[in-house]
Automatic annotation (TrEMBL):
Signal peptide: 1-21
Keyword Transmembrane helix: no
Protein origin, superkingdom: Bacteria
Protein name: Peptidase metallopeptidase domain-containing protein
Length: 402
């Protein structure tokens, strides 16, 4: 998952249909899918005063809130662009949109953007230009000043939050590996290997996955989320130096956040392998979360990708996919690769992923059968879902079509 454009509605991950689906990106495939190197690039966040020496007196979020507008404007002009990239860039696009009217144009003159005729075009401005516009015009936009205070708070809290998870990093590393073992390693011949701290050479590689952990406070809650910076597929030159899979963990795990973390790890590695968001298909069916899909995010089957490949729909829409933000809430607990996800992976890596044909096998909730009957024998005779799943024993289903 990438950080949502709307900072304040970070929607987190996560069904009845034949699940044969995926959207895949055919470029940036891994040359050795059975040996994808993973390393840890744990980056301790900087203290606010390290980024902005003038703020060495600031201790709490309340202190930031009290900084007066004049001082904030000066700081914003000098330091607006050093706030963590993805937060600031997406937010600045929103800020520009907030002062733009499709009939009358920008509220303040911005000659560099006189060509803009509709809001969509604002979201196509590239990062370099955005950075320039941010320092030149950021202070004209009231929303920007408010957001800058918010961003400063995030920087402050990330440092504080990290001290709470620092000692638990080994635990989170182990858990991440465990999730991978129980998903990709269990169901495919794709192998994520290494799992050591990144060496110097690893940092510039486009042939590995570099994982970082941090914390993030939203309101008064630590959120669990992830972002794969490489797009869909192997990371590219742009990602050199920094972590490519950023996982945000809470200081304490409960059942709910455990499941979110499991989903996040499997989902983000799905991106790393080349899977895209299922809810962005034009044939999107059931959406349990009623998630709004920005028109710009829609992925059309067969269109070419920036990286030089093409987008391809493998099978029909999969409402259960681990790559689908529309999955029903009950699916959060599952955190599993669906047949659709596997079909997508099999399309990209046919030698390493095989999808078995549907068959009738033991239902996970089945009660033990009488000792002389095995599930294997009992279930194997059924040829379709209805006949397979109609049999019950002690009020529990016996077989499952899968
Ligand atoms: Zn995603």
């Amino acid at each position: 998952m990438k950080l949502n454009k709307n900072l304040f509605s970070l929607s987190l991950i996560f069904s009845i249909s034949p699940a044969f689906a995926s959207v895949v990106n055919t470029s940036d495939k891994w040359p050795e899918p059975d040996n994808i190197k993973v390393c840890w690039q744990i980056e301790k966040p900087p203290a606010l005063a390290e980024l902005i020496p003038e703020l060495s007196d600031i201790q709490t979020a309340e202190d930031i809130d009290k900084i007066d507008d004049e001082r904030i404007k000066v700081l914003h002009k000098a330091y607006g662009n050093i706030i963590p990239g993805e937060l600031a860039q997406a937010a600045f696009m929103e800020s520009l949109a907030s002062i733009f009217d499709e009939k009358t144009g920008f509220k303040y003159p911005i000659p560099e953007l006189s060509y803009i005729k509709n809001t969509e075009e604002i979201f196509e401005i590239d990062n370099e230009k955005l950075k320039y516009l941010h320092s030149a015009y950021g202070n004209f936009i009231p929303r920007e000043i408010k957001l800058f205070k918010y961003h400063l708070t995030v920087v402050l809290q990330q440092k504080v939050g990290f001290t709470l998870i620092d000692k638990k990093i080994p635990f989170y590393k182990g858990l991440t590996e465990h999730f991978v073992d129980n998903s990709y390693h269990d169901k495919t011949n794709i192998r994520f290997t290494g799992w050591k701290d990144c060496a110097k050479d690893d940092l510039d590689s486009t042939n590995n996955i570099r994982i970082s952990f941090n914390t993030m406070l939203m309101g008064n809650k630590y959120i669990t989320t992830g972002a794969y910076e490489g797009g869909a597929g192997r990371p590219n030159e742009r990602n050199k130096g920094s972590a490519t899979l950023k996982i945000t963990v809470p200081p304490k795990l409960n059942n709910n956040t455990f499941n979110f973390l499991k989903n996040t790890v499997i989902h983000e590695l799905g991106h790393a392998l080349g899977l895209r968001h299922e809810q962005n298909r034009t044939d999107k069916g059931i959406c349990y979360t009623n998630m709004y899909v920005h028109p710009k995010s829609i992925i059309i089957d067969g269109t070419s990708t920036k990286e030089g490949g093409y987008n391809h729909y493998v099978g029909s829409y999969d409402s259960d996919s681990i790559m689908n933000y529309c999955s029903s809430s009950s699916e959060i607990a599952k955190g599993e690769l669906t047949r659709g996800d596997l079909k997508g992976l099999a399309y990209l890596y046919p030698d390493f992923v095989k999808v078995k044909p549907m068959s009738c096998t033991k239902h996970p909730e089945s009660r033990p059968l009488p000792s002389h009957i095995s599930h294997k024998k009992y279930c194997q005779g059924y040829r379709n879902q209805a006949s397979c799943e109609s049999k019950r024993w002690h009020d529990k289903p016996v077989c499952k079509w899968q």
